[in-house]
Predict the structure.
Amino acid sequence: MTDANTTLLARARTPETVSVTPAKPSNPLDAEWRRILGLREMGVYYALILLVVIVAVISSYLGKPNYLSTLNLTNILYQSSLTGIMAIAMTVILITGNFDLSVASVAAFAGAIFIGTAEVLGFWPGVGLAMLVGIVSGLVNGSIVQYLKINAFIVTLGTLTAIRGVMLIYTDGRSLSVSDPAVLDMMKAFESGRVPIGLALYVIATLMLIGGLWIAFRRASRGGLLNPAAAGLVLGSIVLGTLSFIGGPDVSVGKPVIYLATFGSVIWFIMTFTTVGRRIYAVGGNAEAARLSGINVQRYKLMAFVLCSAAAAFAGVLFAARLRSINPAALTGEELTVIASAILGGTSLFGGAGSVVKTLAGALLLYTLTNGFNIMNLGANYQGLIEGLVVIAAAAIYTVGGNRRKSKTG
Amino acid sequence: MADDMPLMRLEQVVKAFPNGTLALRGVDLDIDRGKVHGLLGANGAGKSTLIKILSGAYPATLGSIFWKGNAVTWTDPKQANDMGVATIHQHIPLVPTLSVLENVFLGESGKWRHDSSYGKRFATLCSQIGYEVDPTALVGDLQIGQRQMVAILKAIGAGAELIVMDEPTASLATEEREIVYRVVRQLCESEGKAILFVSHFLDEVMKLTDQVTVLRDGRAVMRANTSDLDEARLAEAIVGREIAALEAVTSERAARANQVASARPLLEVKNLKSEEVKLAEANFVLHVGEVIGIAGLLGSGRSELLHAIFGADEFASGTVLLDGKEIPKSTTKAVKSGLALVPEDRLKQGLVPEFELWRNTTLPFLGGVSWNRWFPVRERERERGAEAIKRLQIKAPDPDIVVDELSGGNAQKVTIAKWLFSDIKVFLLDEPTAGIDIGAKTDILMLVRTLAASGKGVIIVSSEFEELLAVADRIIVMRDGKFVGERLVGETTEHELVRMAGSQGQQRQLH
């Protein structure tokens, strides 16, 4: 409803006519910069930086443990990794114009299958079976939505409850756990333990610097000015380089963070640089136009459901491996955090717009809040209220503020 | 004294947009009571902007607006509405889930949903315009022409003295248009309302209006009494040059007419039908280099036929052969085999509104502008967008413009342009010239002939039969989902086509 209204407003503001003779020579690059640095495009990053600064200042003022320590920051990454993985896939499904409320149930059920079968079948077959459960759930969701043409919100609201119900039947309402030491070792190796990333960060920072400079030089050699992509890459490399320098070569993160980074990079790459990504945005932007352009809309939308449920299953496996057990109420309500991350990242609930990277920033924002509450010892009672207000404020900024052109890169 | 004063008067109105576009460069406009005032202009001439200023949706940047002799500044449509200016937009903003009565009195400030006086007032309104419609019917169930009438009822119900009608007949069939004309005349002559009638159709402007203002490039280039004008002068004022438009297309066609008959079949349609959309069995053959026109009124099954051929209708059955090979029923396969569809509703079906021009242009054939078929190269895509702009003379500053900022005719050109960069053999064009100005229309019709000359096949649907007579080699007439006649262009006239396409409707009127 709000989106429809904004479109109307935006339309009212849009000139119907295109001037053939530019009346006022305005630098297009200036406008581009203004758009890119505007709240709509960068809001989530500004909010994240602002929040980190506020929490850091308050916690040091109150004499709490150092908020900006490497350990704490990597902890935030670790805590947000499961949500992050699901939120990335959720972004893709939202971009195609659909919706999936069943992710948390799928994750919990996949986790239960994994715990329940890992001792009997072995660790990897258990993982495989859990992933299979995810993929099948995605196919079921997607097929009902796409072939019976029932609204995705309603279908996944149903499967949210139904899959949780299947899980209850499977576990008989009790917690499942693993006691076989061999399997426990495998789980530990899979989920726990930290991976040093100092060197990798240096390499990535260097590559970004080279890439940014290369784009800038290529642009400059054609007489162009500095373009935003180049500036972003250079700036990013400086920030990353500084961080890894401060953290030292021994800085390490939990394995789920590596999984998150890998999954996020792959999806970002696909959404930004491949024909598949372009078509996904087109399908969400105007499904009928995409269909009449020869794009197999059904398949793209169905595959988004499969991706979403598979990512949820993987997150469920990670969750179960972390606790070495699972209880029937595990991850209840997690889907809301996942969707909130995507919304904070500026993903449109009506399809066609969204960005994987910003969704990740959204997830980090939410977990930075949680972490800040913990570290400052503020009552957890306020947490829900604050988080809710942040989500609404973000949605308000995206709807009211700035340019209506939406992000179409991963 | 007050009677001499125009009801509404615009003096040197200028509208500049923040992005630097100068949509209006000083427009004068006088609208008198009891007169139908025609507003004409090509796409991008500033008509829409002017209407929005009149209706209060935009403030004017410079210049003044006088309403009944007093200078006014409106900051939102409600104020204009309250003073007596009602605007009926092309896309009629009625609530489809409410009844006709409720829609007409939606703006009333009473407490109750139903007021006993509404029924009586509705009947009075109906008799004022001489048109009856069931007040309890849901607006969503009405035909588009009837909705148009409901919008008019709503406007006079709210006490409007000036009614701005933005292309009210663009999507109407002939009989529905006649009703609009009659109502418009009645409103002026017996009710003394003023009407600003915006239209692309020169003949209806000639027939209906008392005065005309023509806009071109943001200026009013002509202001005259309709009785002093003819269509040729109007057209000249609109495009700024003499149009030999359709004649040029016709002669282009005539030069090649003989070759078509002997050409080999390109597209064969066999037993194609779709009960879901009431499309009766269709059988025909399209030859290499041939243009088939489909003549039919709204609801005659013409769009449904194109969608069925293109594999976009999942309920359709039958065979479509291209170069002797059957095309499976899927839009993906159809495009791969070499079919292209330019759908009727360009923004809803043809374009991704938030994509730039270049992103829309390359959508069907991303592989061709990609590295290793998987990775689209932006530079190549933008080049293609620039080429589309050049080839179809799209009025756009650069390929980076977002398509929903383009005017109708230019957006239409983009929906065609996206098919021009690969090996398409058959083009299915659904009303490609609806609601666009003469210049763009001629460009598109010439393009159709160029495509045919290069060995493509074209099936073109249009409500304007004179266009079909100019551009097509053969015309198939459709009515109620059936083929009711087939003529070579040389053997038929517009009159005959209208009669064949519309006789069913006439019979209905007799009952």
User: Anything to note?
Assistant: The mean pLDDT of chain B is 83. Chain B touches chain A through 57 residues (CB under 8 Å). The longest strand of chain B covers residues 22-31. Chain B is about 35% helix and 25% strand.
